[in-house]
Amino acid sequence: MSYRPLPKEVTIKESDIEGLGLFAIEKIPKGTNLGITHVLDSRWPDGYIRLPLGGFYNHSETPNIENYVDYIAALGVNVYSLRTLRDIKVGEELVSTYIGYTP
Fold first, then answer.
1. Res 100: pLDDT
2. What letter would DSSP give residue 99?
3. Which of 10, 17, 65, 66 has a 20 to 30 A CA-CA distance from 36?
4. What is the model's pLDDT at position 15?
């Protein structure tokens, strides 16, 4: 198995919200785990390492995905992961309420 920086269900393209965003290229069911966005690590200035998936989803007050803390026992680390809050349609932008963000 080779490394994929993004899940197979999404791509990056221009967003009407801001810059680039994540968009569904196939239907994604509610509750789908899309992968890890950040590795929590206090040795880094912001307290985390952002992975490619974490760099492209945009903020929304009406999110269709959520960022949640997960523990990866095999690595002994906490991470932020993304999962869908509802079914996502093809072409829909994936948006989350940023953690610790006040618009």
1. 55
2. T
3. 17
4. 93
- Quickly count: other Cβ atoms within 10 Å of residue 18's Cβ: 9
Calpha distance 83→65 (Å, rounded): 5
State the chain's mean pLDDT as an integer. Answer: 89
How much is the pTM?
A: 0.83
Tokens linked to 23: 């968009």
What would the DSSP string read from start to end of 37-97?
Answer: EEEE-TTSTTSEEE-GGGGTPEE-SS-SEEEEEEEETTTTEEEEEEEESS-B-TTPEEEEP
**Count of alpha carbons within 13 Å of 35, Cβ hemisphere only?**
18
Pairing of strands 77-84, 33-40: antiparallel
Classify 85 in phi/psi space as left (phi over 0), alpha (psi -120 to 50) or beta.
alpha
